[in-house]
Specification:
The chain is α/β, with parallel strands linked by helices and 393 residues long. It is built from 15 helices and 10 strands.
């Protein structure tokens, strides 16, 4: 997920987690742990260490708001070893780990990745494989690519050449995602040739690693179907899309969204028992005004705040699979914590079931942040029962 502002974290949440972040960060980033991870990576590469994880990517979770922050911990979360154990023990088979590589490279060619950051990536990969979890290395929040893609293309390709070289020979459960949510100036016309060149650079190093690709406009299902150009003859590509429909439900009330998303009390599915009064900003914006008019009035079968909104996106993405014969992965979907828990669970269950009906693997956004499925406070945490059931039962 891309952020519309610097952070999706509220200052209150950051204050609650500040001391915890420092405490955990000191532990998990210790040199001894990093050195051990380096040895473990080599053991996985040579077969001395084994994992039951695969690249099937059926049911996963996103560790969002951690390594995709400007620096891990800036947004209130540092990934811990217990997070991987919790995900494995719950019954998930992989994690998607958004990472802001662009903040941790040299500014000049060959754009070397910081050793400290790469050691942290090694630790994540080791933890995932050691817990029999596949792991998606996702290049996330690369703002330069969104704002001046041609100028930053070489930077992106160099990052992936370094990653591919570093993890060559690793188990297939280590999966690459070239770039999260192309958007802004990175249009489909510009993105497709850059994507092809980046894939070619990876393939020159690692010919059959599973690579996740997605289309423009925030990894929309429509762009997956209509505009994403797929290099021919590569069966190890997976098409991905992100789905938060209807966003007036999933993103309601977040301060980092535009004002017309500010209406609270939106339940799922529509119509609500009592009409919801949109905010003035929502009434002033044609799209949100039309949504709330339909949400308050239309029957469940056609309501824009009901399952039909989800099914529509799933069907669009399914057309990509029919066109290309490639797998489809729902890389992000989630219902924000500003919605009531029962509605969040109903939405997550509906989306998960509709994805699985079509053979899509998926990764829920997110683990324990603004769309949380897991409650992480202090040194202990637990799954939110309703969300865990919605995703796994």
């Amino acid at each position: 997920m891309n952020y519309l502002v610097v952070s999706r974290k509220s200052s209150a949440r950051l204050a609650v987690h500040a001391s915890l972040t420092a405490m955990i960060g000191a532990a998990v980033l210790a040199p001894a742990a990093c050195a051990n991870s380096k040895a473990r990576i080599e053991a996985f590469r040579t077969g001395q260490a084994t994992t039951r994880a695969t690249d099937d990517l059926r049911r996963g979770i996103n560790f969002g708001d951690a390594m995709d922050a400007p620096n891990e911990g800036d947004w209130g979360h540092v990934i811990s070893a217990s997070d991987f154990r919790a995900v494995h023990e719950a019954g998930f088979d992989h994690v998607r780990v958004p990472m802001r590589f662009s903040n941790h490279t040299d500014s000049r060619p060959p754009y070397a990745i910081e050793r400290r950051f790469m050691k942290r990536v090694d630790w994540v990969v080791d933890q995932a494989l050691s817990n029999d979890l596949g792991v998606i290395i996702d290049v996330h929040h690369f703002q330069g690519m969104m704002q001046a893609p041609r100028a930053w293309e070489g930077h992106l390709i160099s990052i992936w050449q370094q990653i591919a070289t570093h993890y060559k020979g690793m188990p297939r459960a280590v999966v690459y995602e070239i770039l999260n949510e192309p958007t802004d100036k990175l249009t489909a016309e510009i993105w497709n040739p850059i994507l092809a060149r980046t894939i070619a650079a990876v393939r020159a190093i690692d010919p059959d690693r599973t690579i996740i690709i997605e289309g423009a406009h925030w990894a929309s299902a429509k762009d997956l179907r209509d505009t994403l150009a797929v290099p021919e003859g590569d069966p190890h590509l997976v098409g991905s899309f992100h789905m938060y429909a209807p966003m007036y439900f999933t993103h309601q009330g977040f301060g980092w969204m535009p004002p017309h998303f500010g209406t609270r009390g939106v339940t799922f599915p529509g119509p609500p028992p009592q009409p919801v009064q949109p905010t003035g900003a929502a009434l002033a914006f044609p799209e949100s005004r039309a949504f709330f008019d339909g949400y308050n009035r239309e029957p469940a079968a056609t309501n824009p705040g009901g399952p039909a909104a989800i099914v529509e996106q799933m069907e669009i993405a399914a057309a990509f699979a029919k066109r290309t014969g490639l797998r489809v992965y729902l890389g992000e979907f989630g219902a924000g914590i500003n919605a009531d828990l029962a509605s969040r669970a109903r939405w997550a269950h509906t989306a998960r079931v509709e994805a699985e009906k079509r053979g899509f693997g998926w990764g829920y956004w997110d683990f324990s942040s603004n769309f949380a499925a897991y409650s992480s406070l202090g040194l202990v945490g637990s799954w939110i029962p309703e969300m865990k059931a919605a995703l796994l039962d």
